[in-house]
Amino acid sequence: MNLFEQIYELNRAGESFAVATVVRVEKPISARPGDKAIITADGSLQGWVGGGCAQNVVIREAQKAIRDTQPRFLRLIGSGATSSSASEGVLEFPITCHSGGTMDVYLEPVLPRPQLILFGASPVAVTLAKLARVLDFEVAVFDPEIERDHFPDADFVSTELDLAQIRIHPIAFVVVTTQGHDDEAALEIAARSGVPYVAFVASRKKFASSAAYLRERRVSDEQVARIKAPAGLDLGAVTPEEIAASILAEIIQRRRQRDARPGAPPAPAATAGTIAAGAEARDIVCGMVVEIATARHVADSGGERFYFCCSGCQRQFEKNPTAFITDASDRLPPHSPTV
What we know:
alpha/beta, elongated
């Protein structure tokens, strides 16, 4: 199966992945302009964008691109590079584990369609399904008394309130618009789904009663707090169509904000003794950037911990730590690449 066939299959399966393309090289380096690879969210790579340290950097940055939905332009600079002038919008990484050339790589994240999950077959739900389809959302509707003819724009309909029937996308939104029919059951499923945006078409008074029920069911305070009620932006909407429009406007607003990126709400700030998600350190031997959470090569010296890109750098350090620990600037905190 060639790379384009793999891209097609990943799209069909609703997988998130990134496409890496080599756009420029300065020899000596094993990759060539036009070389491509697919990197999935779990870090597996198919294709060719160079080997060794170059591949490690591309995989790590591709996973970041998938998480934050932003493309990246990388410049991997070898020790033998003839030029290294910084360019706006380019992330630069030192690469010392290969023959010394430089390589520019463009990373493009590819995500499944955004997803709208509806509980209820109310007029608000019908209009939401129509509007969401225009915006290329995948729409799934759940209601015990649903009639398929009322939702011609939905990709999936079910009479069972069971999200296990579908694959929840990285960018997903849930709206409970049951209007008195199975409200609490639908809200509990929605709250436990892990989807960052859950909205309830109901008054604040109605939601307060439902929230008390959810807590009795041991739904966590965090999960209850995630529910937006009343649903939608405060536009003064009155009719079902206007209410649906206000909800979709809020969904668009959330989608374009940072907290709507795939995976989950923003990670909490690190507390003392913890490592922030995505934190990085610089290999004190070769200068490579290492992601702390996934680092395989670690050594402790003088009460401090050091992270390495490979076993070779770790061995060099362990033979003579003082040769590398020369001053405080060598013991870099979590690091962000040059932009």
